[in-house]
Amino acid sequence: MENSPAAYVVFFLAYGASMLAFSFRSIYLLRIFTIIASSLYAIYYFVFPVSPMWIDIISESVLVLLNVGMLLYLTYSQSQVSFTTEEKELYDGIFYRLSPFEFFKLMKLAKWSSFNSQEKLIEKNKKVKGIYLIYSGEAHVIKTEDKTIILKDGAFIGELSFNSGNLASADIYVQPLTRLIHWDQRDLMDFLNRNPSTKEQFNAIITDDLAKKLVIS
Fold first, then answer.
1. CA 147 to CA 143: how far, in whole Å?
2. CA-only gyration radius of the chain, Å
3. What is the three-class DSSP state of 48?
């Protein structure tokens, strides 16, 4: 019975579900497909071998229970938070790697700023005290007299200094009608150090942003 067509079908369905789980951006879908995959693996190990493979059955069952528990926790956490329209746009577009509750805590540290005229946000060779995210509008990064990089919606500012602690490598001017989100560097670093999972995902978001900037620089 071990090599029956049904055995292959169940096994490859389980394998396919486990691969799909890691292709989703949503933590909910990741856990749901992990539950499906582990459930199918448990069925496979119980039905198709000559005798049930109890160690594998138990380990897959534990994974199912763990992920069901985490789904319930995520659902409960999300029910405790609510986002503004702006925050929801940010979560769906940039911070989707975080759970809703992690994003909620991150945004509690943030401050919003609006600019009606051009202002120097960061000065070259000076310490950068914050990390910024452009919600709408743009900022001009003056590398040299002949080189200016324009950052627009969704771009981070000051992220290199945040990760390295180095002084600013360019002057950055915020343009009129720009709206920014701002985190104090020290407060954000303390928060991320207290929340390792959030820190890992936040660093991944910053890495994505740096990769986009390499294309336009």
1. 6
2. 23
3. coil
Residue bearing tokens 């809703």:
100
- pTM given for the model: 0.66
The answer to whether 35 touches 68, Cβ cutoff 8 Å, is yes
**Residue 81: is it exposed, middle or buried by C-beta count within 10 angstroms (0-12/13-18/19+)?**
middle
Give the integer Cα–Cα distance in Å for 69 and 75. Answer: 10
Q: Considering only CA atoms, which of 112, 160, 120, 170 is closest in space to residue 136? A: 112
**Quick one: CA dihedral 194, 197, 198, 199, positive or negative?**
positive
pLDDT in tens, 24-71: 767 788 899 999 999 999 999 998 887 889 999 999 999 999 999 988
Report how far apart, in Å, the C-alpha atoms of 4 and of each of 15, 57, 84 are. 17, 19, 54
3 state SS of 144: strand
- 3-state class of 147 per DSSP? strand
